[in-house]
Amino acid sequence: MSHMNLSEPLIEFRNVVKSYKNVLALNNVSFSLNQGDIFGYIGPNGAGKSTTIKIMVGLIRDFSGTLLINGKNIKSSYLELFKILGYHPQEAGFHRWKTVYQALRTFGKLSKLEKRLLDSRIVEVLEFVNLKEVMNRKIIHLSGGMLQKLRLAQALLGEPEILVLDEPLTGLDPASRYQIKNLIKKLANSGKTILFSSHILSDVQDIATKIGILNLGNLVKVGRPSELQSEYHVRNRIQIEFDNDIDILDQLQNLNYIEQSENKSANVILISLKVEADLDESIHNLLQFLIDNKYKLRRFNLLTPSLEDVYLKLVQGENNEL
Amino acid sequence: MSYRVLFFDELKGFYKSKIMIILWIGMPALSILIHYLIPSTEGFPVSSLVAVLVSNISGMLSSAMISTSIANEKNNHVYDLILMRPVKRYNILLSKFCAVYLCLIIATVISLALGLIIDILTIGVPSQYFLEETFKSLTISLSAMAISCSIGTFFGVSISSIAAAAILSVYVGNQVSAIATLPVLFIESLNSVLIALLVAIPLTFTFLIISLVMFSKKQF
């Protein structure tokens, strides 16, 4: 499995279905990842993200459909899978009586890493996640952020080609979130293929090269962030700041390319363009209108639709249909 | 390979756990206490009394310890990080069972040895008869403890609530491990050691195998 064929996807889900008794957790999920992809897997809580991940890392083996890792069916190659995959679970615990070093040493031995290289590798990963100074501290005395970093450290121990991170940023304070995000970015830059799940969109938007949106067990959309944004252009918005306080809303409502306008403050208005309106033409016409009416502008900003708009449209839209 | 790593890992965890400290220090201390609290054992060796007490207390504590340990690790997702490595599931349970059982054997032997030393110091070198009785007590104690540990493993795997797993394993462990000693009480001609082994070995294996099967099918 270490000799990868670059022409075929590194990871491929084909019509994967998983049910828990009468509950359908995953319904015909299909997607693929190539080497170097950073796949942001998003969806509300209970959408099936962790189920997908547990199938991928071999914790759930009773599923239908096919999962290929580097062209090989995972069901016949779990042992090989463990050699190339690092997993950061959402809420994995450790033996709390151990020190950070002892915990990593056990994981290293269980992963059958070379004993003579194990200690230096432990130091290396602890340096990477900024935990070296607490190497000899007992796990029971670590903060939430440190535990999250330790989960990441154990995932990196075997220098895996694929990293699977289940909600790596959940429950962290802003400083720890920032640090973990930067670590993921560093890993991505080093060429790892990463799949990480989150229910927080901004986390995914910052890092992912590919995004999968999961809702109620269905993979509703997969694509690159830019593709999703352009395909699901919800509405272009324009924010205009004037030199003086103005009362312009009534006039704007008469323009046929404007859907809605509102005052953000006395001298700032926010305009939503109609979906069908041509963006360039609308901007041109709007500027012309403002110049003709001798309004003094301080700032004119085009607000492109965020991934959040796409997500809300897909997820909320589907939930409302139920 | 993974069994050895897990076994020594569990051993390190257990030998300094609170319950094991009770066994390490408490059981030998019991040997001394019995001598001072019950000075008139009327020639009955302290070591035999210790064996009876140790089997009851250690069996109870060990079944609670092993069941709460498994239930707790299950609830805290400790196994997630082990199972996504090349580790056989049964090794996780077997290593835990063996580590706890080894700790118990050592604690029991220390207690009995101390009991024997007290006997030698107070009533002189015990007779062959008393030594045989002590050996029988030791075998029966270890048999009962093996049953208790396997029942603790069973409840740890099958129940998520830590409190329920502890209570059930203590109660059921006590009741079932008594089976190893009961036949001898009713039929005096029976060989108590043989009966204890004949009862304990299949019962321990049965509970362990059921636990291993359940654990291997468990979804984490």
What does this structure look like?
The complex is a heterodimer of chains A (322) and B (220). By secondary structure, chain A is of the alpha/beta class. Chain A folds into two domains: 214 residues, P-loop containing nucleotide triphosphate hydrolases (Rossmann fold); 68 residues, 2-Layer Sandwich (Alpha-Beta Plaits). Chain A is 36% helix and 27% strand. Chain A is built from eleven helices and 14 strands. A six-stranded mixed beta sheet of chain A has the order 6-7-8-3-9-10, with helices on both faces. In chain A, helix 6 links the parallel strand 7 and strand 8. The mean pLDDT of chain A is 85. Chain B has 220 residues and is mainly alpha-helical. Chain B has one domain. Chain B has nine helices and no strands. In chain B, helix 1 packs across helix 5 and helix 6 runs parallel beside helix 9. Chain B is globular. Chain B starts with a helix and ends with a helix. The mean pLDDT of chain B is 84. The chains are: A alpha/beta (322), B mainly alpha (220). At the A-B interface, helix 2 and helix 3 of A face helix 1 and helix 4 of B.
- Provide a count of the helices of chain B: 9
- Mean of residue pLDDT values of chain B: 84
Helix content of chain A: 25-40%
Helix and strand run of chain B: HHHHHHHHH
- Spatial gap, N to C terminus of chain B: 23 Å
Query: What is the percentage of strand-forming residues of chain A?
Result: 25-35%
Which CATH class of the largest domain in chain A?
Alpha Beta
How does CATH name the architecture of the largest domain in chain A?
3-Layer(aba) Sandwich
Q: Which of globular, elongated, flat, extended, rod-shaped describes the shape of chain B?
A: globular
Residue fraction in strands of chain B = under 5%
Number of strands of chain A: 14
Identify the CATH homologous superfamily of the largest domain in chain A. Answer: P-loop containing nucleotide triphosphate hydrolases
**Structural class label of chain A:** alpha/beta
